[in-house]
Amino acid sequence: MKAEPQIKVSDNVRNLQLMVNARCDEVEIQSNLECIKFKPTMMYTTRSYYFTLTNPKSIAIDYYMVMKDEDDNAGFEPFSTDNESGLIEPNSQVNITLKFNPTEV
After folding, report:
1. What pLDDT, on the 0 to 100 scale, is given for residue 50?
2. Is residue 11 part of a domain?
3. Cross-strand partners of 99
4. Interval 39-57: pLDDT, tens
């Protein structure tokens, strides 16, 4: 391990003013979504459900959605979304489209 270098104090000392600005807030995503129920859908056809995610806070929020079945297995095949991840700017919203496309019984 190397020793720390020697410190040389300069005679030319001046005070500098440092300005700092920080923003901190809790993460919160709001949606009016409670339960999605698709109408009966023929195989190889697609039904879409639209909902909105809202960020009411003063900081941007990254989001990422994962489709899971009732056994908590990811990659639930008949469901997909065009925008599964993204950034919701402060006091903004993003529209989500959830698609159901059954290919087997």
Report:
1. 92
2. no
3. 48, 80
4. 888 888 999 999 999 999 9
Domain residues for the domain of 58 are: 28-105
Could you write out the three-class secondary structure of 20-87? CCCCCCCCCCECCCCCCCCCCCCCCCCEEEEEEEEECCCCCEEEECCCECCCCCECCCCEEECCCEEE
What's 105's domain CATH number? Answer: 2.60.40.10
**Which residue in 70, 69, 38, 68 sits closest to 51, CA to CA?**
38
SS3 category, 91: coil
Contacts of 59 (CB under 8 A, 6+ apart): 23, 24, 25, 27, 90
Longest Cα–Cα distance of the chain, Å, equals: 82
pLDDT (tens digit, 9 = 90+) per residue, 72-92? 766 667 888 888 899 999 999
Per DSSP bridges, beta strands 92-100 and 79-81 are antiparallel
